[in-house]
Write a structure and sequence with these properties.
This protein is mostly helical. It is built from 2 helices and 3 strands. It has a 3-stranded antiparallel sheet, with helices on one face. The N and C termini lie far apart (89 Å). The mean pLDDT is 82.
């Protein structure tokens, strides 16, 4: 009986090459970069939505103020401080947008709000730009 001999000894590969590791790291980096871009867009959209919600709440508080004052809206000079003085607004955070800037109240309305404009300058913090968020009808 003849015994078959095993093939000559081959060294076993016990790890990854540097190229394989770099390739995997590059792929992971690309995936994370794409995820960060999507996350950033979602966060920007969330801040706009948060500011719109605050504007809606403040509009209701302005209507409540008006009903308490026999139909009179806060004056331009008193602004949103009138809501704080009357106790309708408790903190300064309630009258700031999602970017930390104070909301703007103007009377009479100039941009198509109700009888007043209530708005935020948006992420660029510049007035009269397309990213402004306010109580006026959207131009979409």
């Amino acid at each position: 009986m003849k015994i078959l001999s095993s093939p000559p000894f081959r060294s076993r590969r016990r790890g990854f090459t540097l190229m394989e590791l770099l390739l995997v790291l590059a792929i992971i980096g690309l995936l994370m970069g794409g995820g960060a871009a999507v996350y950033s867009g979602i966060m920007d959209s969330a801040k706009v939505t948060k500011t719109q919600t605050k504007l809606g709440i403040l509009a209701g508080q302005i209507q409540l103020y008006s009903s308490q004052k026999s139909g009179k809206l806060p004056s331009q000079s008193a602004g949103l401080a009138a809501l704080k003085n009357s106790g309708l607004v408790k903190t300064d955070e309630e009258v700031t947008d999602a970017w930390g800037q104070p909301l703007i109240y103007t009377i009479p309305a100039k941009r198509g709000g109700d009888k007043y404009d209530l708005w935020s300058k948006g992420p660029d913090n510049l007035e009269n730009t397309p990213d402004d968020v306010g109580n006026w009808p959207n131009a979409d």
